[in-house]
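Re: [ENG-882] Designed sequences occasionally contain unexpected residues at chain ends

Forwarding the minimal case from QA. Structure tokens:
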């Protein structure tokens, strides 16, 4: 992409030319473009002042509409400030910051003037700051915090003028906490509670204490919030989360149960409860039930991340694990696509060798490269992300597995190609198999073609394709409860067969990976679960016994890099 400064300079040049010709609207359009690229560039503000002087203030050149361009909104804010109305311009800057928090929209002198904090209505400022806090995240990403500091300066000046305004103190505390100033957050929230005790004030204080690591005081504040309003069940979930952070899971679950007794479908309590129960015993069924709840309750009060947090960095629940084998088993044969579906897989199904499978088309390769990634938040998210592969016919998906394409020329693709090319090949297998799930979705599962193809791929060898096909089956069990018994049986049998094959000399091989897949399978039977647990423990013990070369952790560094990018841009 073009450098923002270069783009802004080009817009400024065109704005000057338009202004010289007297084309005010044309000049305004280019100025809006420049300010959107470089919001604090002095040349932009100088030209904006010239335009305002020639257009009687210039406000009509930057109208606000339902879908106004962010540069138009910001330019209007600066013109309002220049016209002596900075209190009207500040909310427009805050709206821009809510849109793109990392841009320095407010990093201009008039925002930091003490007079603005003194003249602005404290109720309006408090509401503005609360909306901004909702938009920027909790906490705000490190790279966005500097751009939010000017708003904290405004709040400082406003509090100096209105030192007992409880809403402003609480909202300011929430902003300070989000940008990493926990001490200031505690100070302001405590002052707000002293000025006027309330449920909201105690919640702000509890969050501030929690950010400062003062968990006992955080719990005291949140319990006081419950006294103010025993019907606000979200506070019960907050208390549970705070207790869990102290390792007091039994007490935390007791608060969850209190909330669920009042409302069994209250989303915050349901999410928190399943997350804490999973933390307590590691049983994947808690996460499966949470996924079911999310599917049947799409209109929750706000976005929850409990499922993704529990799945994070767990093999197959959120990522393609590394393994010594990445190519297909030399004995592998590929299923055909043309045969009609039958109720159960059997040896009667014809298969074809890998060399007989035609190579995939360029279109199929491009579509897979657009969706394939070594990370996903959780299995249902991977299933949803693969829906685009519905446009790739099943025979093409099999061709992608038989002839894996190169990694795409993207940031992630280049990193995998350079540091872990085998993992990219495994990504191809995984996403092609996930794509098969979306074909013939109207066919009943037991006799469907998608089931038959995946079962044959899983049974066609003992390699990374086996794992990928089994992962697709397990993923389908997460999203379709009626398939769970069938998939659990398939996973258990596959694990038993893999364990029965001769062991390789590698400490982490197919048995460990299939065991991890079995442990991720909904409704897995106790015998299979016991076997899977034993395999994982044995393989990990064997791995731990192998001395590692000092300082060699390139895979871990790559993994951290990929995880950071998934966090910033979730699939």
């Amino acid at each position: 992409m073009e450098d923002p400064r270069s783009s802004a300079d080009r817009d400024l040049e065109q704005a000057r030319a338009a202004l010289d010709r007297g084309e005010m609207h044309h000049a305004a359009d280019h100025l809006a473009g420049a300010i959107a690229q470089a919001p604090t560039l002095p040349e932009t503000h100088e030209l904006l002042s010239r335009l305002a002087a020639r257009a009687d203030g210039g406000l009509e050149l930057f109208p606000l509409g339902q879908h106004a361009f962010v540069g138009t909104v910001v330019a209007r804010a600066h013109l309002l400030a220049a016209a002596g109305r900075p209190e009207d311009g500040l909310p427009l800057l805050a709206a821009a910051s809510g849109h793109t928090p990392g841009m320095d929209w407010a990093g201009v002198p008039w925002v930091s003037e003490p007079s603005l904090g003194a003249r602005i209505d404290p109720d309006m400022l408090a509401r503005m700051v609360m909306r901004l806090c909702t938009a920027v995240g909790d906490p705000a990403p490190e790279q966005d915090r500097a751009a939010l500091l000017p708003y904290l300066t405004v709040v400082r000046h406003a509090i100096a003028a209105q030192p007992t305004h409880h809403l402003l103190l609480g909202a300011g505390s929430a902003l300070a906490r989000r940008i990493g100033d926990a001490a200031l957050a505690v100070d302001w929230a405590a002052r707000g509670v002293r000025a006027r005790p309330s449920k909201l004030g105690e919640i702000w204080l509890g969050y501030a204490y929690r950010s400062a690591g003062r968990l006992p005081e955080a719990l005291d504040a949140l319990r006081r919030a419950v006294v103010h309003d025993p019907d606000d069940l979200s506070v019960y979930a907050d208390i549970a989360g705070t207790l869990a952070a102290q390792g007091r899971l039994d007490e935390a679950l007791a608060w969850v149960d209190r909330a669920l007794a009042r409302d069994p479908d209250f989303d915050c309590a349901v999410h928190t409860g399943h997350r804490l129960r999973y933390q307590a015993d590691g049983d994947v069924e808690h996460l499966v039930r949470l996924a079911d709840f999310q599917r049947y309750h799409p209109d929750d009060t706000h976005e929850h991340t409990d499922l993704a947090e529990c799945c994070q960095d767990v093999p197959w629940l959120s990522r393609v694990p590394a393994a010594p084998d990445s190519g297909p088993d030399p004995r592998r044969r590929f299923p055909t696509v043309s045969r009609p579906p039958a109720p159960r897989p059997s040896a009667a199904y014809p298969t074809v060798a890998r060399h007989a499978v035609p190579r995939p088309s360029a279109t199929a390769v491009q579509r897979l490269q657009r969706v394939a990634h070594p990370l996903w938040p959780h299995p249902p998210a991977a299933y949803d992300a693969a829906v685009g592969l519905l446009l790739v016919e099943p025979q093409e998906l099999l061709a992608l597995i038989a002839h894996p394409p190169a990694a795409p020329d993207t940031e992630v693709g280049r990193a995998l190609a350079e540091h872990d090319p085998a993992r990219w090949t495994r990504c191809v297998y995984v996403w092609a198999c996930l794509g098969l799930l979306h074909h013939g979705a109207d066919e009943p599962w037991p006799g469907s073609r998608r089931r038959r193809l995946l079962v044959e791929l899983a049974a066609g060898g003992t390699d990374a394709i086996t794992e990928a096909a089994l992962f697709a089956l397990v993923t389908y069990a997460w999203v379709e409860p009626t398939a769970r018994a069938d998939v659990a049986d398939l996973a258990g049998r596959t694990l038993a067969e893999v364990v029965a094959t001769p062991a390789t000399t590698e400490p982490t091989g197919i048995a460990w990976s299939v065991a991890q897949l079995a442990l991720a399978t909904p409704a897995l039977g106790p015998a299979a679960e016991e076997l899977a647990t034993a395999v994982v423990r044995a393989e990990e013990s064997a791995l731990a016994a192998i001395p590692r070369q000092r300082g060699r952790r390139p895979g871990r560094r790559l993994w951290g890099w990929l995880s950071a990018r998934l966090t910033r841009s979730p699939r």
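QA comment: On inspection the terminal residues look reasonable. The longest strand covers residues 333-335. Proposing we downgrade this to a documentation issue.
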